[in-house]
């Protein structure tokens, strides 16, 4: 019987962040999955469902913000293994309406490693076209990641 050894180091931290994302109650409202694949990079695949549409039949800005913020946040928090980061500011730009289907938010750390982090994200739809992009500022909090029930690191 071959047992897979437990992940350690950065890989363990990445899996724990993915678990933290999955455990957040807000994510029960959205069909989505986070993957942290390397330091400073995170991807969220999600479904754009009609339940998230505004009156004109496309995704409401709430969905754009949530996915962009989360992708940028987790890209930044992949560099921090002891504390939870907090979003302090986020700017977003809508470039194309999102219709029903699969989309992906791609987050990337830009700068900062001590107290303040800057990360950006973009959303692409199933055809690969960009629908939105944003940049966020994230602050190291006093909340230890290890105390959060969903963080299994």
TrEMBL record:
Keyword Iron-sulfur (UniProt): no
CDD domains from the UniProt entry: PaaI_thioesterase (cd03443)
Keyword Hydrolase annotated: yes
All residue ranges annotated as the Thioesterase domain in the record: 57-132
Bilayer-crossing regions: none
InterPro entries documented for this protein: HotDog_dom_sf, PAAI_dom, Thioestr_dom
Pfam families: 4HBT
Entry keyword set: Hydrolase
Protein name as it appears in the record: PaaI family thioesterase
Native source species: Sphingomonas arvum
